[in-house]
């Protein structure tokens, strides 16, 4: 068993000259509720002139179970302590001692620090009691340890009046908590600690080493546990903070300077920026392993992890006792050091994660500074690789091969003396600074790592559960394998990147994106991401839904100098059906060059090429167009190249993932050889609505035209009609489809009319006027149009003695339309348009009487509506040209009915209608400069039933329903219900 003082613990010489143990043991050394200073000046008959230390904590038992006593009872509550508290004499380790090796700070402020070091010149040895192997339980509860007590000063006078002054410097003793013993440290309940420094102060020694037959390896581990809950840990200070300041305000221990490892002049890093450090002893035979768990807490400062190979480890190998030859065949023994940092429950960390090892910079046999990275070896004799080396491993000359391996890259696997792992869970966040070098980074549960103005190097990086890795300006991330699972890696548009590997915003040998994960390169430069293989793949859930990884290039013209791969097929019947998704805007472009490697499995010329797919792209992919725009003509999009695979041997398949609204049409991706281009599809919802409006206006007008025609038909049948006042409710449902536009329309409205009968020389006339007020609702998919129309009619009917009649009408209409729709990207679009229209109707028929009550009326009619409207734009920029829209309707049909009379004042006339209708509306509209057919025409059949009932000679009511179908517009149903008062 070997305890020792650490060389890098700050020197105690300044104290040793003046301090001595003050064994003023008291049964009442509880300082709770008081202000207490651990240093005191004495100059009296009992004590020589000097500064004395009174800061050792101890239980102060005087029985056989106690060896050493202390100055302070180790439960401190509601106190203010100035100075340095030492745990050196806290527990003697004897079996008969029931006191726990624990120190509790509660509801207090320690203006200074806690150390495990001896603070005086004549500290008694503790080894025989086993003290150094007894773990310390240190609890900081709702308390502050600020590490800001830097000097004890005394300025007084001697009895003779001469100056009596003393200064004890303690700023360089460590941070707020500085320990060289194993510890279970709990910081909780809104506590604040300015720095935690842990060193390996003792060991369990091996017996000899692995090259000796009697060698026995010690399996003991020097373990520390730090648990921080609802609290804050900041950097501490090893410097005199009072030597500089701004406007008279000097620095604090918790201030973070941000000096990078490579730029620092203090032992290879800025010690004053370190919040937590775990420094393994190079002379130890055991591993030092530290776990740090933060829960709903803040860490402001760097984490420093230092690891060297154990004392009995041989990085270059040694000859073991196991055989009789002298061959180098063993690496010896090494317990792997570890630093495992976990952030939970929304914890936040700002700082760097530094992996280092101690070095002897001047060759005097004393470790005196630090170098980047833990110690590592690629000579793996009887140890297995436990990590990857960012700077690669290189071969040595081998006389058995013709190839000269010396100086050539042969791989990346090494055995490291220590591993540094960082995990973020449940919405935690890490903002990196400086240069971080770790082994694994796991980002889980909605957590976020932001890398800006800094560098992060990790052997592997994995993201799960909606987490994010954001690389912003001057941020650099390098890893061997990056896995993005249901999470996002985003490279900002303004990242700084160069062609060199070190200059890439993101460097990764292998990038795996799956299960709705997203790799978003934004509008960064092509070389912002450098990779060898991009594996863009998918998973399938129990319901058969594919969850694909996404590579999003936005509007970038991105060049992928990596192989694009997955092992998925487009055959839905196969178990490996799936795909990766490539997302981009319509103005984006992806060139896939591949990594340029060829398979060199048969030789050693390039070790990373072994097993390379050769082809630049393999597997199955879908291409998603993300943006939507109302602007742009067909020529702007048709056939536009989205992806170019710069490899004719590529076997990758590409298909459309979606349809995007661009201009008037939807577009999707289509593979053509080694190209993927844009393919035109149907109208967008908003264009469909805009182009359907004129046809829908015509439907409203035709319904009103039918209502006026019904009024004139009623005047010829039933009881005598001398003209009068009438009112009708009209409603209908239409569905239109001309293979370009399509819609459903519901119409409701009313018409009011007034007319009179005039006897002419050759005919009886009905002359009148009417007004119509109708609202319509036009829809298709997300498209919606609210319609409002007003119409003024004049009409007449002439009935001749031979029962031939002629009906005619002229009208003016005004249509107002409010359009809305959703675009393919979810954007809401709206617009409004209004138009004026003139129309006419002309009907010629013959009333053939069947007895005194029946009739059959063959007829023919023609009507026309001529609309005009101004240009307008939708909110998304789509321009619709002035829609002059003409529609003509030709109809041949027959009405038949029979009048039942009930006395002289009441009558019932049911009737039936059958007609052939031809709509002629060959129209085109300009949208973004393109001419698009929006005319609705074709032949149809009308069938209708109705009845008119006269309650009195002057008052009657009527109703009818009809269906019209067969052309581009079907009238699924129409109804007309009204009343009439006859003069």
Structure characterization notes:
It comes from Raoultella scottii. Pfam families: Autotransporter. Residues 1-27 form the signal peptide. This protein has a 23-stranded mixed beta sheet that branches. Strands 5-7-9-14-18-23-28-35-37-39-41-43-45-50 form a 14-stranded parallel beta sheet, with no helix packed on it. It folds into four domains: 14-175, no CATH class; 195-226 and 240-433, no CATH class; 464-683, no CATH class; 685-982, Lipocalin. The protein has 983 residues and is mainly beta. 4% of the residues lie in helices and 51% in strands.
Secondary structure: number of strands: 76
Count of helical regions:
3
State the helical fraction. under 10%
Supply the helix-strand structural class: mainly beta
Annotated CATH topology of the largest domain: Lipocalin
Looking at CATH, the homologous superfamily of the largest domain is Autotransporter beta-domain
The Cα radius of gyration reads 45 Å
Average pLDDT for all residues: 89
Biggest sheet statistics: 23 strands, mixed
Separation, N- and C-terminal Cα atoms:
125 Å
CATH class of the largest domain: Mainly Beta
Query: Please, how many domains?
Result: 4
What quaternary form is this? Answer: single chain
How would the global form be characterised? elongated
Question: Roughly what fraction of the amino acids lie in strands?
Answer: over 45%
Under the CATH scheme, which architecture of the largest domain would be assigned?
Beta Barrel
Q: Any low-confidence stretches, pLDDT <50, length ≥5?
A: 1-27, 263-267, 399-404, 599-605
């Amino acid at each position: 068993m070997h305890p020792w003082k650490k060389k890098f613990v700050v020197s105690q010489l300044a104290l040793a000259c003046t301090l001595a143990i003050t064994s003023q043991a008291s049964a009442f050394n509880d300082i709770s509720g008081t202000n207490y200073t651990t240093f005191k000046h004495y100059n009296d008959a009992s004590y020589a002139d000097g500064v004395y230390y009174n800061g050792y904590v101890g239980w102060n038992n005087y029985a056989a179970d106690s060896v050493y006593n202390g100055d302070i009872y180790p439960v401190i509550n509601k106190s203010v302590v100035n100075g340095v508290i030492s745990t050196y004499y806290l527990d003697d380790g004897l079996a008969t001692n029931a006191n726990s090796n624990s120190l509790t700070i509660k509801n207090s402020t320690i203006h200074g620090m806690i150390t495990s070091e001896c603070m005086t010149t004549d500290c008694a040895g503790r080894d025989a009691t086993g003290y150094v192997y007894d773990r310390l339980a240190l609890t900081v509860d709702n308390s502050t340890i600020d590490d800001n007590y830097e000097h004890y000063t005394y300025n007084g006078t001697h009895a003779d009046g001469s100056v009596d002054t003393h200064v004890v410097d303690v700023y360089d003793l460590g941070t707020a908590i500085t320990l060289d013993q194993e510890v279970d440290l709990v910081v909780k309940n809104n506590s604040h600690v300015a720095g935690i420094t842990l060193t390996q102060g003792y060991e369990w020694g091996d017996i000899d080493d692995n090259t000796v037959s009697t060698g026995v390896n010690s399996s003991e581990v020097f373990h520390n546990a730090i648990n921080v809950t609802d609290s804050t840990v900041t950097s501490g200070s090893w410097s005199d903070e009072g030597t500089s300041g701004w406007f008279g305000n000097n620095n604090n221990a918790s201030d973070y300077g941000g000096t990078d490892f490579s730029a620092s002049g203090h032992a290879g890093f800025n010690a004053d920026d370190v919040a937590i450090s775990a420094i393994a002893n190079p002379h130890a035979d055991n591993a030092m392993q530290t776990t740090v768990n933060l829960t709903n807490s803040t860490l402001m400062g760097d984490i420093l992890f230092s690891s060297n190979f154990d004392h009995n480890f041989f990085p270059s190998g040694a000859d073991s006792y196991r055989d009789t030859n002298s061959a180098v065949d063993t690496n010896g023994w090494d317990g792997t050091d570890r630093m495992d940092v976990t952030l939970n429950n929304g914890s936040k960390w700002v700082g760097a994660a530094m992996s280092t090892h101690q070095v002897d910079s001047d060759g005097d046999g004393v470790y005196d500074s630090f170098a980047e990275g833990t110690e590592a070896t690629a000579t793996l004799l009887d140890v297995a690789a436990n990590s990857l080396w960012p700077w690669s491993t290189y071969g040595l000359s081998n006389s058995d091969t013709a190839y000269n391996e010396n100086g050539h890259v042969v791989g990346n696997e090494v055995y490291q003396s220590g591993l540094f792992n960082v995990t973020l869970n449940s919405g935690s966040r890490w903002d990196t600074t400086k240069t971080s070098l770790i082994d694994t980074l796991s980002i889980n549960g909605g957590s976020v790592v932001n890398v800006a103005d800094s560098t992060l190097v990790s052997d592997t990086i994995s993201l799960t559960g909606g987490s994010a890795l954001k690389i912003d300006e001057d941020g650099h991330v390098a890893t061997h394998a990056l896995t993005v699972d249901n999470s996002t890696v985003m490279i900002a548009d303004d990242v700084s990147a160069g062609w060199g590997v070190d200059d890439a915003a993101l460097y990764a040998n292998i990038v795996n994106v799956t299960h709705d994960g997203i790799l978003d390169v934004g509008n960064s430069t092509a070389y912002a991401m450098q990779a060898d293989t991009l594996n863009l793949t998918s998973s399938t859930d129990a319901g058969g839904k594919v969850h694909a990884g996404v590579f999003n290039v936005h509007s970038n013209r991105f060049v992928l100098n990596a192989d694009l791969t997955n092992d998925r097929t487009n055959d839905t019947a196969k178990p490996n059906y799936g795909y990766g998704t490539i997302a981009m805007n319509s103005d984006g472009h992806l060139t896939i060059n591949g990594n340029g490697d060829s398979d060199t499995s048969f030789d050693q010329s390039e070790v990373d090429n072994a097993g390379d797919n050769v082809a630049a792209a393999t597997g199955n992919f879908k291409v998603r167009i993300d943006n939507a725009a109302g602007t742009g003509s067909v020529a702007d999009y048709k056939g536009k190249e989205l992806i170019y695979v710069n490899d004719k041997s590529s076997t990758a398949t590409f298909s459309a993932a979606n349809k995007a609204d661009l201009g008037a049409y939807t577009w999707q991706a289509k593979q053509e050889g080694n190209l993927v281009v844009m393919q035109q599809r149907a109208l967008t919802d908003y264009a469909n609505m805009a182009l359907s409006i004129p046809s829908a206006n015509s439907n409203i007008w035709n319904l009103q035209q039918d209502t006026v025609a019904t009024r004139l038909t009623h005047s010829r049948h039933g009881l005598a009609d001398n003209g009068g006042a009438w009112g009708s409710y009209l409603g209908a449902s239409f569905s239109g489809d001309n293979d370009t536009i399509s819609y459903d329309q519901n119409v409701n409205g009313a018409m009011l009319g007034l007319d009179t009968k005039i006897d002419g020389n050759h005919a009886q006339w009905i002359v009148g006027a009417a007004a119509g007020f109708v609202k319509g609702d036009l829809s298709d998919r997300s498209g919606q149009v609210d319609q409002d129309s007003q119409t003024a009619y004049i009409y007449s009917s002439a009935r001749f003695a031979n029962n031939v009649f002629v009906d005619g009408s002229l009208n003016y209409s005004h249509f107002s339309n409010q359009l809305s729709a959703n675009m393919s990207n979810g954007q809401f679009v709206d617009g409004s348009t209004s138009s004026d229209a003139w129309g006419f109707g002309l009907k010629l028929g013959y009333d053939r009487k069947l007895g005194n009550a029946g009739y059959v009326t063959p007829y023919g009619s023609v009507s026309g509506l001529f609309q005009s409207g101004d240009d307008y734009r939708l909110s998304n920029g789509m321009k619709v040209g002035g829609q002059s829209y003409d529609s003509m309707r030709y109809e041949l049909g027959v009405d038949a009915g029979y009048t039942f009379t009930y006395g002289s004042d009441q009558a019932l006339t049911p009737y039936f209608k059958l007609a052939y209708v031809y709509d002629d509306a060959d129209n085109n509209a300009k949208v973004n400069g393109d001419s698009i057919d929006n005319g609705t025409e074709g032949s149809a059949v009308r069938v209708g039933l109705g009845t008119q009932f006269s309650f009195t000679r002057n008052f009657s009511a009527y109703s009818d329903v009809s269906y019209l179908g067969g052309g581009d517009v079907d009238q699924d149903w129409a109804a007309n219900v009204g009343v009439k008062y006859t003069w």
